[in-house]
Amino acid sequence: MEIYNTPESNVEIDKFQSAPSVFWKIFFWIHIVLILFVPFAFIESKELHYLDYIDAAIFLPIVAFCLYCYAYSKRPIGSKIYSVLFYSYFLWAIFYEGVAPYILEVPSYGEEAFIDLWVIIIPVFLIPTLFAQYMLTKPINA
Q1: CB 110 within 8 A of CB 48
Q2: Rg of the Cα atoms in the chain
Q3: Which of 20, 66, 104, 134 could hold 24 in an S-S bridge, CB 3.0 to 4.6 Å?
Q4: Which of 30-44, 51-65, 76-90, 113-127 has the lowest mean pLDDT?
């Protein structure tokens, strides 16, 4: 009587999806808390620009969704869709955080752009957010 041996598989041990650290979960929840304050900007400031409405209605939900997906290792959509979200947000972030306030002098959520603490705060949130979105563009086993 012969014992059945399973066939050899071509699985690479080095490639796996690692779970993000606790930092990403905390970063996600900090983003959610800050996003909850956005409606107050609409109530408080009368000088909102249509770019603020675009940011709040389109890009803040994209950021929240992508950060959630990265922090909790969820992939409800494909890598190509994440790529579209990443590149659209990347271009939006350059325009909305750099070009609009400093070159076109469009106030962001009713605040004039000054080179002060915001120059530090914006990259602290923007760079990790873009990193998380970029990591979602990679296939799971790539």
Answers
A1: yes
A2: 20
A3: 20
A4: 113-127
Q: What are residue 108's phi and psi, to 5 degrees? A: -95, 115
pTM, to two decimals: 0.77
Q: Alpha helix (H) ranges present in the chain? A: 22-36, 38-44, 50-54, 60-71, 79-94, 100-102, 118-136
Q: What are the residues facing 120 on neighbouring strands?
A: none
Alpha-carbon distance 113 to 110, whole Å? 9
Q: What is the pLDDT of residues 61-98, one digit of tens each?
A: 999 999 999 999 999 999 999 999 999 999 999 998 88
Query: CA 57, 43, 45, 130 torsion: positive or negative?
Result: negative
